[in-house]
Design brief:
This protein is 60% helix and 0% strand. It is mostly helical.
Length: 62
C-alpha cells in the first residue's frame, strides 16, 4: 500500500497552507520586481542609469 499525503483538513493545516501560499506569492512578486527593475525604470521615464547628484541636492529657497 502506497503512502499518500492527506490534504490539510484541520484549521491548523489550513492556516499553515495559506501562510505558505502567501509567502510563495510574496517571494515571487519580489523576485519579479528585482529582475525587472531596469525595465520598469525605463518605462516610467527614468531611462538614464547615470546618477546625477545635483538633481537630488537640497537647495533651500532664500
Amino acid at each position: 500500500m502506497e503512502s499518500v499525503a492527506k490534504p490539510a483538513t484541520t484549521k491548523e493545516g489550513s492556516a499553515k497552507q495559506a501562510a505558505i501560499v502567501v509567502g510563495v506569492l510574496a517571494l515571487g512578486w519580489f523576485a519579479i520586481q528585482v529582475a525587472f527593475i531596469p525595465l520598469f525604470n525605463k518605462v516610467r521615464g527614468g531611462g538614464s542609469d547615470k546618477k546625477d547628484d545635483d538633481v537630488n541636492a537640497f537647495t533651500p529657497d532664500t
